[in-house]
Design brief:
The chain is built from seven helices and five strands, in the order ββαβββαααααα. With 248 residues, it is α+β, with helices and mostly antiparallel strands.
Length: 248
């Protein structure tokens, strides 16, 4: 059994005779009493266990603790306390961005790392320009937070909370001015110092509708329409016959 020393929330923890198969999540929850990070799926699919390691977010349920000796690990306990909330924690409260709260520690850890990614101009899967990402809109935030599931479906308010912090930190203005400065350096154009985050996109994001063609469904609908039409014609004929009979 190995002996390891982990740096978590700027504190050093030494673990002796640790089973090498123990995940970072289980070490925090069961060995160190750091229970803020949650075990949801235990398969790296829900994001409830998200922690930040060396500035990057990871699913701690899939990462062995012995891999992280010498790394700087941050859990939700290291981001803020009830008496001194971080700006993103306060934004979650302000925007009612949680209900049951089970996924919230992972959401906040993920959002905290997201701000650093934006400052470093890292692109996402939906970025149209990989070398010079555009301003972060609702689609960008949704994509960057897609690894964190909220079963209470508080996604619209989570996005609002993230946007609130971006506005307060001036991240949108910073990105815009950086982009304009780069363009100005190449073209000699004047720098736009009043650029803001693009808020033209609706605040509630949802995937676009599917345009997949289903022949079986089309045939079924066509048959249903024909049957309805035939039934309507038969009913009209019956009504007409009854009317004639009554007249006679």
């Amino acid at each position: 059994m190995p002996n390891i020393t982990l740096s978590i929330n700027q504190q050093s923890y030494t673990l002796t005779d640790l089973d090498a198969r123990t995940s970072l999540l289980d070490v925090c929850r069961h060995h160190l009493n750091l229970t803020g990070s949650k075990k949801g799926c235990d398969h790296g699919q829900c994001g409830a266990c998200t922690m930040i390691v060396n500035g990057r977010r990871i699913n701690s349920c899939l990462s062995l603790a012995i891999m992280h000796e010498g790394d700087e690990i941050t859990t939700i306990e290291g981001i803020g306390e009830p008496s001194s909330l971080s700006d993103i924690q306060q934004a979650f409260v302000d925007n009612d961005a949680f209900q049951c709260g089970y996924c919230t520690p992972g959401q906040i850890c993920s959002a905290t790392a997201l701000f650093d990614e934006i400052e470093q101009r890292w692109p996402s899967h939906v970025s149209t320009n990989l070398t010079d990402p555009e301003l972060v809109d609702v689609q960008e935030i949704a994509e960057r937070m897609s690894g964190n599931i909220c079963r209470c479906s508080a996604y619209p308010n989570i996005i609002k909370a993230i946007q609130q912090v971006m506005d307060s930190r001036g991240l949108g203005n910073t990105l815009a001015s950086q982009g304009d400065a780069e363009i100005a350096a190449k073209t000699g154009a004047a720098v736009n110092t009043t650029a803001q985050i693009d808020n033209s996109t609706p605040q509630i994001w949802s995937p676009p509708p599917s345009n997949i063609y289903h022949p079986a469904a089309q045939n079924s609908n066509h048959s249903s329409n024909n049957n309805s039409s035939n039934n309507s014609n038969n009913n009209s004929t019956n009504i007409a016959s009854s009317s004639v009979g009554d007249a006679q």
